[in-house]
Amino acid sequence: MSTADLAPAFFAAAVVILLTCRLVSIVVTRLGQPAVVGEMIAGVLLGPSVFGLVAPGLSERIFPADLLPLLYVVGQIGLAALMFHAGHEFRRYAERGLAGSAVAISAAGVLIPGALGLALTFAAHGRVDLFVDGVPLGVTAAFVAIALAITAFPMLARIITERAMSGTRHGSLALASGATDDVLAWLMLAGLLSVAAGELRPALMTVGGSLVFALVMLFVVRRFLAWSMRRPGWSDETRLLVTIAVLFAAAWFTDVIELYVVFGAFCVGMAMPRGEAAERVVHSTHSVTRVIFLPMFFTYSGLHTRFDVFAEPAVLIFGLAAVVVAVIGKFGGCWGAARLCGESNSVALRVGALMNARGLMQLIALNIGLQAGIVSSELFAALVLVALVTTTMTTPVLSRLERRDAKSSTVIGPPVPASAT
Prior knowledge:
There is one protein chain. The chain is mainly α. It has one domain: Na+/H+ antiporter like fold, CATH 1.20.1530.20. It has 19 helices and no strands. The chain has helices at 3-30, 35-45, 51-54, 56-62, 68-93, 99-124, 137-149, 153-162, 169-197, 200-230, 236-256, 260-271, 276-292, 294-302, 313-340, 345-355, 359-372, 377-392, 394-412. The longest helix is centred in the middle third of the chain and has 31 residues, at 200-230. The radius of gyration is 22 Å and the shape is globular. The N and C termini lie far apart (84 Å). The relative contact order is 0.16. The mean pLDDT is 86.
């Protein structure tokens, strides 16, 4: 496909993607789900499992193979903007004395589902056809472990905001734990890909580049952004341009050192200062890119998801087992860690439910694994199933917990005033 043909093909595909994502999001929001869940589902519907199956010829015309790299790049812009917003949100709640509990919950949320994922993958070896030839079993098992350990921090932040839980103990604790969880998961994923490449140089570049990036963010970028937000005479458009330039530079650098776009964007969001000017910039960045660019990423993921692989019973059993293991490991592990840290059962259950959502972040990791050639289409589909189930169950579980607590408080009744005794 020539460059001249690529532009109209992209615009035609963009119309289909944006309208489909919006329509599905409207439906799922009426069912009590966040809009981003609808975009995840829409991405799968536009892929070969539904649209490609019902109308294969039309699917190929709307989404030709030459268009996929462009969808990937545009989707990365949406991811960078989303993680920039998530980093800014995290900073808002990071200073609430939650460090001890957040670290413990995050550790449990990584180690327990990770260990169960390792065990499940080793048990499936030789029984289920989902391994890539030439990729060591240990690499595949470690990837599954990391994928199950991930928490969908951007989606978690969105759910907490939409349900007015930002000022609650469980909301703040889940945000702090989820961010720590994902930072650990991305570092482990970067290390795994270096091992998979069979070279020491990528690992050294990741570690060394991470140190350089951290120092630059702490001593240069943070101060520069604070200066640019309060500089007199600058318009909001100028501040937005400067912020986007810094955001893209960070995304470029972390992508080069194999920490990936999401990590750099998240750190820039954390480096943004507080204040009205900064809030306007963050809102402007998030509002446009979130609506236009992020659906491209979900569609790119959906175009690589083939649920027809579940026609093989062993693959379907593995996918269902992965869902069970993921829920037990993350929900159960985070609930148990919160209880051990002295949190009430009500808070611990809500933290477990929120941390269990994997959604967008797991899809990002799966696409990275697919691009690196260490994830097969069968494993990709099985783990997409995990992302969909664990994310869609979050809101119903939270609603059930709220109804239970409301019913319990009604049964117990208000406390009797001391004067009445």
